[in-house]
Amino acid sequence: MSNVIEPRQNLNLTLRMMFSYAGEIVLWAGLSILAISPLASDFSSHSITSRSFSILRLMAASVPPLFEYAALYYATGVPPLEEAAMRKWGSDPLWQEYVSKVPVLFAWPGSKI
User: Which pLDDT band, with edges at 50, 70 and 90, does 3 fall under?
Assistant: First the structure.
């Protein structure tokens, strides 16, 4: 019995790792959506200064999910995993099929899954 793990099993592990990143982004987006209601509650004030401050707070509430997406997709999460996977399975036809069919983070409508 060998210690070699079949590529198909490893591909499933990689898929789960990317979707955990998507879940983290969705979590931060949900927290930001929850923060919008209290932040927008004083938006009905008639003062221009108060309204502009409320808009700034609403914009600030959208920063965490955007930052999380940018950090995971462009810096710390996806690039190192994709690079390691390409080194390990880059010439494997199963891997090439997997990469062509499976989206990196989110399964959007029209995805080939």
Answer: very low
CA distance 69 to 86: 22
Structure tokens that stand for 58 in this block = 């609403």
CA distances from 51 to 43, 46, 54, 69 (A): 6, 7, 5, 28
Q: How far apart are CA 77 and CA 95, in angstroms?
A: 19
Percent of the chain with pLDDT over 90: 4
What CA–CA distances, in Å, run from 24 to 4, 71, 75, 89? 31, 12, 15, 26
- Would you tell me how many other CB atoms lie within 10 Å of the CB of residue 109? 4
Q: What is the pTM of this model?
A: 0.65
**pLDDT for 77-100, tens place per residue?**
888 888 888 888 888 888 888 788
Residue among 4, 9, 7, 23 nearest 105 (CA): 23
